[in-house]
Amino acid sequence: MGLQPNVITFSTLINGFVLHNQVPEAARIFTKMMEAGHCKPDVVTFNTLIKGFCVTGNSSAAIQLLRNMEQRGCEPDIVSYSTIIDCLCKDTLIDEAINLFSEMISRGITPDVVAYNSLIQGVCNIGRWRQATKLLNEMLSKGIFPNVVTFNVFVDTLCKEGMVVDAESVVETMIQRHIEPDIITYNSLMDGYCLRVEMDEAKQVFDLMISKGSLVNVRSCNILINGYCKQKNIDEANKVFQEMTGWELVPNTVTFNTLIDGFYKAGRIQEAERLFSEMHDCGQLPDVQTYSILVDGLCNNQQLSKAVELLREMEGDKLELNVVVYNTIIEGLCKAGKMDSAIDVFSGLSSKHLQPNVRTYNIMILGFCKGGLLSEAEKLFTEMKEKGCSPDGCTYNTIIRGFMNNNGTSRGTGLIQEMLERGFSADASTMDLIVDLLSKDTVDPVLVAWLKDSV
């Protein structure tokens, strides 16, 4: 029939590719549309592709498309700007987001609650919650009323800062404004109380959610279970877990991980293992965190051989393990004085395409120091620096104490100087050791000279 596709056809096609996460294909269709020339993209077409770039985190391509839009004589609207502002905020590029927000206003585009919510969330995510309050006041002065999302951002931020009383005041303000708190509001509030280990208050919020009907979800239960586990009240945590079935909620991997960890930390190994088996039976797949918990739990409950056996089993199953799992095993071996086995695991990391991190080196250096193997500790200390892994305060304090405890005061003193130059300081244990050495009848002259220079 010789019919030419129109702008709606192209926009629909581009949107289809964006929805199926095929943004490069959407961009190709857009370019084809531009090159053909007979059909100009409109604001909807541009906004659709901007959304695609933002969904994939490509804010620079989205901004470039915004500029292209202006050059083509198509006026950006609130959606164009809001989408990119939200993307920039999620990438913690807050200053760029604020600049774009100001540009939008200067073009005569009035920001809406969605644009403000993105900015408020962005500044809160980087701890600038006072700036968020300023943005809220600005919103109100322009007659833009906050919605449940706006309030939820403030409740969550205040709770994470430990300011639960202030968060409660925000919830009261919501209710006064006839904005009904939702499951996100209450979960944040409950999490805030759990972070402060105020479990009675957290349970009151949870019970309020239950009384409101369908307000409790798996995350609500996970928050409460985690709170009880941190309080070492494993029986209450287990009670919440058992009641989930009655609320028609299916525990997820996070639920199992939290409770398994709680049982191990309480020394209830059999119950932790039973729960792990139940996890399999429920069809919940263990993740790397699950295996980290299992290995850590076994090591901390003097079940080192079982932990090593589990590690070999996981390796045999070709599971992708991270360095955290290996750190736990190495630490367990070092604590047990099995340095040869620890060295074997440490040396095998590279063959598994894993890089030791500062914690791995710290564990190994401590193991060598406790075993009096100072030359090995110093060799590893040098190696970590050569491999681009910078020692931290823990590394310095560990190796300094290692030398000072093994008649190596001269070398230890030199390392104290290096530590201070790197911006780290002696911790309480190192200071106690220095004071102890100074109180002896014979004091190392190198240590005395260092102290004189430091004063």
Topology of helices and strands:
Layout lengths: L6 H13 L3 H14 L6 H13 L3 H13 L6 H13 L3 H13 L6 H13 L3 H13 L6 H13 L3 H13 L6 H13 L3 H13 L6 H13 L3 H10 L9 H13 L3 H13 L6 H13 L3 H13 L6 H13 L3 H9 L10 H13 L3 H13 L6 H13 L3 H13 L6 H11 L6 H10 L1
Question: What is this entry, summarized?
Answer:
This protein has 455 residues and is mostly helical. Helix content is 72%, strand content 0%.
**Roughly what percent helix?**
over 70%
Low-pLDDT parts are none
Q: Approximately how much beta-strand content do the residues carry?
A: under 5%
C-alpha geometry: globular
What structural category do the secondary elements indicate?
A: mainly alpha
Number of strands: 0
Counting H and I runs of at least 4 residues, what is the number of helices?
Answer: 26
Q: Kindly, what is the distance between the CA atoms of the first and last residues, rounded to a whole number of angstroms?
A: 93 Å
- Give the topology string: H per helix, E per strand: HHHHHHHHHHHHHHHHHHHHHHHHHH
Biggest sheet features: none
Query: Radius of gyration, Cα only, in angstroms?
Result: 29 Å
Oligomer: single chain
